[in-house]
Amino acid sequence: MKTYIKLFAISSLFVLGACSGDFLDTEPSTTKVEENFYKTPADAYQGLVAIYDVLQREAYGGPLLISEQASDDCFGGYGIADAQSDIEWDRFLFVSNKEMNADVWKYAYLGIYRANILLENLSKVNWGTDTALKTRYEAEARFLRAHFHFMAAKMFGDIVPLDHTIAASEFLLPRQSAEVTYALIGNDLKFAADNLSTDNYSQTGNANYGRITKWAAEAYLARTFLFYTGYYKKVDLAGVVTKAQAVTYINDAVSNSGHNLVSDFANLWLAASFDKFAGEDNTEMVWAVRFNGSGKGDWNLNEGNRFQVDIAPRGGAIGPYATGWGGATVTPKLYNAYEPGDTRRDATIIDYKNETYKGNPLNFDAVAREQRQYTGYSWKKYCPINNDAGTSIVEANGGNFQIDNYQDYAIIRFSDVLLMAAELNFEGNPGLALADINRVRDRAFKDTNHRLTTANFTVPAIMKERQLELALEGLRYFDLIRQGMDVTKAAIDNTNADAQFNVTFRTETQGWFPLPQSQIVLSNGTISQNPGW
Known about the structure:
Helix content is 40%, strand content 7%. It is mostly helical. A three-stranded antiparallel sheet has the order 2-1-3. A hairpin with a 4-residue loop joins β1 and β2 (13-19). It is globular and about 65 Å long.
């Protein structure tokens, strides 16, 4: 049996499949097979690019958009005649579309599969004397394998962890306990953190921007540590990383990475800053998924950021904001959570009722635009924009406004690193923890008058700061469930005179999303649906 790799030069993708039969014993002339492909470092690099490519398969939101709709920061939104699945994510129902999370599962395992393919073939490559390059590729591949495992595990709970490409006899593997999955994640991230160089690629024009670094691995290790130990009430990361080690890693990322905060929070987001935009490869971006508009309307490519259109104003452009589908409307609760003077509010959220453009109010007519769950607020972070002529920048450049938006998705910003450091240092070094969180608040208020003190510095204060700083970045829901079902329910439940805004979080789900029904059917009984679904 041979595994075939079809090479697409444009997007550097690998499409892998398995077949058997005597006719396959002859080496094909038009395709390469795994057995004869991995010979040179250039081959290994193509394999690495294939793993990175899966990151762009966010499709229309993935965990980012799903979790924001499920959190207390957003409702479901979209149009009044649109699919009900968006309301189901919002209201924690599961009524109509039993495949609503299929893409999350599919792309997580595609990424895991591609990572395992490369890792299993690194030893076949002739590295010459450059063994450091082999170690680098292994570290990046193992980081990405950990990322894809974590993407699935934080959505679905117990999953099937895979540290190798599976044989036919393993197609019906059962889910494993969280400890097994997180031990694999922890070991992979630890290897990456310990073996990658101290390079920092977040500089304008750096060709390696978007690649994994030691600093991204240290920060991601802290993120998984906090989620696992919080949700499962454990003292360490599956016996692999102790709290003391997690503290050492995150403090190293704070002190030695070379990353820093951009001086003005608004300049991180194109729709909040326009000509003052700091650029995507700015010093605050520890790790981001890269997108571009090169697809020019080709739906077969995945180069563009496709979730941006989901959260843009419904029914046509309004002011400087380009058109979209009006998904995940922002809750008044989030808007009102910001203190007076906090610059993050107006850089994060479009306020249709009070915001003006060129001296004119935005005048959003929800009825005319058929906007469901209209709150008066939507995403400014990641919102696509128009040029001065009122045309979408994407369309002005020859692209399709639905699939060719190009803003990168920030997975780890340095402000998140500081807030994780504050949380991890809270008990052992409260002075350092307080200094880290106040760096974030100083930037938010553009002064030092809003700093927390020892009197009001608490773990809930850290979680509140995370909500305000990292709103609409796909972290809030997971921050809630790691604090417990009671905290999650208290935050998400919403009662309103208008029934369309009523939300009841169901604790019997334990915070997990439903598995795609197709996976349960295909498992032949080895996988069962998550509780509460």
